[in-house]
Amino acid sequence: MPALPPNSLIAITGVTGYIASYTGLYALRAGHRVRGTVRSIARAEALKAAYAKHGIPTDDLEKRLEFAIVDDLNSEEQLTNALRDVDGVLHGALAFTEFTDPKLVDIAVEGTLVLLRVAKKFPSIKRVVLTSSIVAIHTPPAIVHDRVLSVEDWNDEAVNMFENNLPVDHDPRLKRAAPFIPYSAAKLKAERAAWDFVKQESPKFDLVAILPATNIGPMLYGEPASTTKMAASGLYDDQTVARFLPNQWFVDVRDTGRLQFLAFTTPAMAGKRYLAAAEPFKWNQIYAIYRKNFPSAKVPEDFEEGEEDVQKLDISPSTEVLGEWIGLEQSLVDLGRSLGF
Question: Which residues does residue 274 pair with via DSSP β-bridges, in sequence order?
Answer without folding.
Answer: 210
